[in-house]
Structures are given as structure tokens and as C-alpha cells.
Amino acid sequence: MERTAQLVARPAQRTIAYDPADRSSSMHTRAARVLESNWTGASTVPSRGLYPHQWSWDSAFIAIGLRHLSPLRAQTELETLLTAQWGDGRVPHIVFNPSVPLDAYFPSPDFWRSSTAGRAAGAPRTVQTSGIVQPPVHALAAWLVHRADPGLSRGRGFLARIYPRLAAWHRYLLHRRDLGGGGLASVVHPWEQGMDNSPCWDAPLARVLPAPARSFRRADLDHGAPEDRPTDLDYGRYVRLATDYRDAGYADGKGAFAVEDPAFNALLIASEHALARIACELGATGTARHARAERLTTALLDRLWDPERGMFFCRDVRGGGLIPERGVSGLIPLLLPTLPREITAALVRTARGPHFSLDDTTRLVPSYDLLGEAFDPQRYWRGPAWFNTAWLLERGLRTHGERDLADGLRSSVLELAESSGFAEYVDPYTGAACGTTDFSWTAALALDLLHDEPAQDTHDIGETKQIKDIKGGDRG
């Protein structure tokens, strides 16, 4: 792989002009200001106080928004993240900024010990990272960033330089993380799935002995209200899982927690389709990658789809069987353009039904079942609505021709992003801000929807549908 200095080298900034007469220019300016204030010179922190380092899937979403401000900065965001990739292909979920004090965030670099505990897995020596991963949105982000300014991208060799890293990242997930043997990637820690505190994890986490409370200090409570954050019991279990994974040298397949998640795998499939397009852009053929994406889609349907309840569910690899909790993760596969029509219709019905209430009683789709016993409209991922899942659902609805629902969701995202001060997440009923404000992916994804360019994505969707048609049409 290329040296870090080669990968992040960049020419002078190039910015796309924005018409100040546009009626949305004030929101554009405020969102851009959030991203500028969270920019470190090479990447963007999610939040200056609560999250002072670079996060993996955050940076992918941030790049998607940054492409409307500066395609160069969007490319740099992804390039910086990928310089921290491990030798086994994994992209770590945190890349630590050495100038940030150790006590500013927990778990800190001295907990993960990546350069020593991760040596056998090829952890980099020159930068400290975590040892777990996050959802693979990166190839999709890279493709969208390329499309924002193809000339700049080709001139810098952007796709040519990051394609091998993205391909290695997918190989790691497809080979090292197929812990259930059914073709899907498993997460080995709730933090890897991104929806950290979801009730979907309660059953598999119940088997984990929590780390003693005295063995760690929660820096997150310095910046967030305790009633909005995970409980100490849950946090103790998170720490135990991470400790055991670290002490095993970050070897996969040995831990007590292994879950196949529908959103994680749907994003892997979407990024496989994106990698196919990148391969074509680089002069190769994307047929094999499109075919792999279709095999993964079949595995997703075989292993995680519940026809009676009309959505996808997580599978507990260690405990066996589907986890009977409705999380927004089970709607995210709507993003995939080659799902059978009856599946997409069922997902839309479920999203509009009483469990999620899209376009009815909620302002944004909640992260967890409104009727679930564990529902809490403000506690982290146990009910609040998040802007990244709304962006993914908006894209999925538009992909499958649900234009009115997509337009309504887009309007809600833009309204609530601005009125909440670009909050980390919001109460799904009232839209009241929760967590921190001036949150980077909220600002970035609001920018992306503000600069709504459905025509740009039509080519991508149509291209994938052509692949499906060549293979013989819809399944089922």
C-alpha cells in the first residue's frame, strides 16, 4: 500500500460555487460552518467536545456532504481515514488524534493498544486506532464524491489510489467476519454496528459479564445527560467485550458477541455495487462485484428476512435465531435497488405502520420500535431518530419510486436539522434536540439533501437494475 504522505497529498483547495440568491443559502451557510468548525486540517471530528477524534462511518457520511462544498476536502476525508487501515484490511472505527488528551474520550488509545495488541493483525505503527470497525459506507461515499467532480478525481488519481484499500476492506468483512457461515458479515461489538445502544443487542449482551465500574471512567457523561446515554451496566458490557477482543490480539471468531445485522450488511452490499462502478471507471469490469452483491442480497433475504413481520431482523450467531426486536436497522435494506418488489412493498408498509409511523405521528423514523417495551424517545439509539438513518431511508424510498414519502422525509430532515442546531439525534415525536449539537454528519447529510440531485443517482440505480435484468429479473 502507498505511504501515508503519498495518500493524503493534495493540491490547493477547490470549492464548488453556491448561488447566494438561493432561498436555502442561509441553511447551507450554517451547515457549512458546522463542518468548518469541526475540520482538523485532514479530517472532520463528529463533535469537538463529545467525539474529538475521527470516526469511520461518520467520515463516510461527512464526505458525502462535503462533496457539495469541496470535492477535494471530501476526498481528503476518506483518504485520511484509509491511511489508518490495518494490514488485514479492517478499517478501524476510530483514528485517534495524538494532540487530544487521553482523558478527553474513553476508550482512549491506551485502552486499545492497537500498535501492540493489534500487531499480528497488521495495525499501523505510526497512528493509534481502535481495533473494531464500523459499517462499510466508504465505497458508496467514494463513488458519490468522485461523481461530484470527476475531473478533479481523475486528475488526482483518487479512485485508483483508494480502490485497493476499499477492496481489502471488503475482503476482510467477507472472509474474516463470516462467523455464521451463511455469507453475511458479523459484528463482534455493538459499537461496530453504529447503533451502539439498540435494544436489539440486549439479549446477546446479557451473556456478557460487565467490566467492574471502577475499571473505567465514562468521559461521555462530561458532555451528555445521563438519561440520554447508555446505562453503566451496558457500558460495562461494552468495555468487557472490547477488552476481551483486544486481549485476543483482535482475532475474529472467539468472542461472546457475534451478530449479523441487516443495516451493516445492506451497506456492505450497496458499497459492493459502488465498488463495481469504481472498477468500471478504472477500466476493469464490475460484473463480478455486482454478482457478489447479488449473492449477499440473497443471503440477507435467506438469513434475516421475516415475512410475517415484514422487515429484516438481526441474527444472534452465538445464541442462534433472529432477535425479535424491531430496530430501524431492519428497514435500511430498502436502500438496495435489486430487492424483490414484494419485499420493498412490505418494508414500506412496516415503515408507515404503528411500529415506526413514517409520515404519520413521528417527525423522523425512530431508531427503535415505538411499541417496544424498551422504547425511550431520548436515550441513545433506544428510540430517538437519527439523521443518517433518515438519509439512508430517503435514498431507499426514492430508489423504489416512493417519491412522495421520500420528499416528505427529506423535508423533515432539513427542517429538524436546522431547528435542532444540527443535533446528534432528536426525539422522534417532537423533534427536540438530544445529545450534542453542531454534529458533523447531521450538517453534512442535510447539505446533501439540500443540494438534492436525484438525477445524478438515476444512472447508478438504472445501471444496477440492468444487471438484475440481465440475470433474469426480480427474484420471487
From TrEMBL:
Superkingdom to which the source organism belongs: Bacteria
Keywords recorded for this protein, A-Z: Glycosidase, Hydrolase
Disordered: annotated span: 457-476
Gene3D superfamilies per record: 1.50.10.10
One Pfam family matching this protein: MGH1-like_GH
InterPro entries tied to this protein: 6-hairpin_glycosidase_sf, 6hp_glycosidase-like_sf, Glycoside_hydrolase_63, MGH1-like_GH
Residue span, Mannosylglycerate hydrolase MGH1-like glycoside hydrolase domain: 51-442
Annotated family: Belongs to the glycosyl hydrolase 63 family.
Protein's name according to its UniProt entry: Mannosylglycerate hydrolase MGH1-like glycoside hydrolase domain-containing protein
